[in-house]
């Protein structure tokens, strides 16, 4: 009787990865990461920027609506009191419930807790603004200024410069700040702006 034996497999030992090969792989991975991360950051900033542009556009429409209805522009706020353009525009930004409790002339320290948080349409997602030390009213993200109050007055709206911290319920006009400061905006150091002049021309974008 013949015996049949299967051929024995020869097991070759695995070759270890050399240090040089490991370094090459790590270098390739590092290069890919260094190329990918900036692209991801740019994509995220592009999305945030688009949201900000939409906010500026909505605020721009609200200012026009207010100007047509009132035949003037919003009044500046009194120091330490609820008021100003951000408050007066709330009904025109489809936020009548907030406007009903944002009573002009009331001290900021007595503002209802519901008003502490900045409304989404007034929030720039690219802006990193610290909360006030007392944890109450958030800071404004956009600024507004005008040269007069009439129905044909020129006005200017834009992201506030970084480092500018004003309670959103009492955001003074920013004319001198924009004219006299070295400006740094939240969008790759830039701004989104909108405006209106007496000839009716508008400007909108970066």
Summarize the structure in short:
With 206 residues, the chain is an alpha+beta fold. It has helices spanning 19-70, 85-88, 96-101, 175-180, and strands spanning 142-146, 155-159, 193-196, 202-205.
Q: Could you characterize what this model shows?
A:
This protein has 206 residues and is of the alpha+beta class. The protein has one domain (57-205). The chain has four helices and four strands. It has a four-stranded antiparallel β-sheet, covered by helices on one side. A hairpin with an 8-residue loop joins strand 1 and strand 2. Residues 198-206 have low confidence and may be disordered.
What is the fold's blueprint, element by element?
Layout (H helix, E strand, L loop, with lengths): L18 H52 L14 H4 L7 H6 L40 E5 L8 E5 L15 H6 L12 E4 L5 E4 L1
Antiparallel strand pairs: 1-2, 2-3, 3-4
Entry keywords:
206 residues; four-stranded antiparallel β-sheet
Distance between the termini: 93 Å
Q: Reading side by side through the largest sheet, how are the strands ordered?
A: 1-2-3-4
Biggest sheet architecture: 4 strands, antiparallel
By secondary-structure content and strand pairing, the structural class works out as alpha+beta
Q: What's the Cα radius of gyration?
A: 28 Å
Q: What is the residue-averaged pLDDT?
A: 77
Strand-residue fraction?
A: 5-15%
How many domains in all? Answer: 1
Helical residue percent band? 25-40%
